[in-house]
Design goal:
The protein is mainly α. Keywords: Endoplasmic reticulum, Glycosyltransferase, Membrane, Transferase, Transmembrane, Transmembrane helix.
Length: 440
């Protein structure tokens, strides 16, 4: 019997366009295949590569004090010294201790799953933003050091990085309040996530009105208060001074990026203040001349938000409704990811000391950043290989740290020389221009 004209097409006919679409856009199937392949690699690493004992015993000692009822942060210590992470770290590793009994092998399996979940989110971000070509996604899975950080060292950086990527996914979907809550959770595990805070604040100002920004930040602050409540109610000074200590001096031997600097200079206050000044200046320059270029600069963005708030206040006080006063605009996913990744990378370039586990702070953004530069692909791959090479030299030396700094500066220079992208998703002419630039 012939099928009526209005009948729905058969399931077989619906599969063909899907297959054709996947063949035309290989990024999605390639990302899925890469994820499965890397999951197998992680399993093999856990099975055959010996575990490296570094901080795990210290973590377990600190957790044991917490689960034993100790709430004075100055008394929570381990083999490597006192506890210096916020309360979220204790909750995460207390749960791990409960699940694994403190044994390393089951913890490695748990971290293996964490690695795969983190990589899945990163691949989703890369597919969503569509900046990096499909074949370059494999760069996200070839780092020896990052695999080691996750499944052979079991650092808390892994949880902080994973939660940050979860928050970034929320930001890409304009879920700013939810993203801030997840972001604050990442900060509660390790403070390095605050390197993303300056570009994130700028994005919040561009995406929401001032009241929206205040409410989102209040939600993030509430997370910190709730997580730290057991310590804030008992020993608040000890908790705040140790969990949020920004003035720690790291050991020169472990520095991967400034090993060529003499130790007396490295530990000096002047060197730290100089790097902090460079960090703030670079953030200000990028924010004004790159991230807010199309709005007329940072001060123009702030002025427009203040004017918007005054107009809303005036109309509310006069009981007039003005629906078109809401000038919040949807930010493009590429602009969100680019701003966040560059802001963090500036902090990495200006960090006084990068330890080996700190590579996870920015590794997953490296391919994205390299493809945001105007460099040819061969130079991008060389820079990626140079950075990876430096992070796999142990112990680091003057030459490897100079090469790493040189590669970082070259990448940052490329990001500066790239034309700033249009930040909003409501202008088709700029969309076409960006697509044309992407194609070339």
């Amino acid at each position: 019997m012939a099928r009526p004209p209005n009948a729905a097409p058969s399931s077989g006919g619906g599969r063909k366009p899907l297959i054709q679409k996947l063949l035309k856009t290989p990024k999605i199937p390639f990302a899925v295949a890469l994820l499965f392949a890397d999951a197998i690699l992680v399993f093999l690493i856990i099975t055959y590569v010996p575990y490296t004992k570094i901080d795990w015993d210290a973590y377990m000692s600190q957790v044991s004090g917490f689960t034993g009822g100790e709430r004075d942060y100055s008394k929570l210590k381990g083999d490597t010294g006192p506890l210096v992470y916020p309360a979220g770290f204790l909750y995460i590793y207390s749960a791990i201790h409960y699940i694994t009994g403190g044994d390393v092998y089951p913890a490695q399996i748990l971290f293996g799953f964490l690695y795969v979940v983190n990589l899945a989110m990163v691949l989703f971000i890369y597919v969503k933003t569509d900046v990096v070509p499909w074949w370059a996604l494999c760069l996200l899975s070839i780092s020896k050091r990052v695999h080691s950080i996750f499944v052979l060292r079991l650092f808390n950086d892994c949880f902080a990085t994973t939660l940050f990527h979860a928050s970034l996914v929320s930001f890409l979907y304009q879920k700013w309040h939810l993203g801030l809550i997840i972001f604050s959770g990442a900060v509660s595990i390790k403070m390095n996530v605050l390197l993303f805070a300056p570009p994130l604040l700028l994005l919040l100002l561009k995406a929401m009105d001032i009241l929206g920004v205040i409410s989102a930040l209040a939600g993030a602050a509430l997370v910190q208060i709730l997580l730290g409540m057991p310590f804030l109610l008992s020993y608040p000074i000890e908790y705040i001074s140790r969990a949020f200590n920004l003035g720690r001096v790291f050991i020169h031997f472990w520095s991967v990026n400034f090993k060529f600097v003499p130790e007396p200079v490295f530990v000096s206050k002047g060197f730290a203040l100089g790097l902090l000044a460079a960090h703030l200046i670079l953030l200000a320059i990028f924010a004004h001349y790159r991230w807010c270029r199309h709005e007329g600069g940072v001060f123009s963005v702030l002025h427009s938000k203040l004017v918007q708030m005054k107009l809303k206040t005036a109309h509310l006080s006069s009981f007039q409704l003005k629906p078109n006063l809401n000038s919040n605009r949807v930010l493009r996913t590429e602009h969100i990811a680019t701003t966040m990744f560059i802001g963090n990378f500036i902090g990495i370039v200006c960090a006084r000391s990068l330890h080996y586990q700190f590579y996870s702070w920015y590794f997953y953004s490296l391919p994205y950043l390299l493809w945001r530069t105007p460099f040819p692909s061969w130079l991008r791959l060389i820079l990626f290989a140079a950075v990876e090479f430096c992070w796999n030299i142990y112990p680091s030396n003057s030459y490897s740290s100079m090469l790493l700094l040189f590669a970082h500066v070259i990448i940052l220079g490329g990001l500066w020389s790239a034309p700033p992208e249009y930040p909003y998703a409501d202008d088709t002419s700029h969309k076409r221009a960006n697509l044309k630039m992407k194609a070339t």
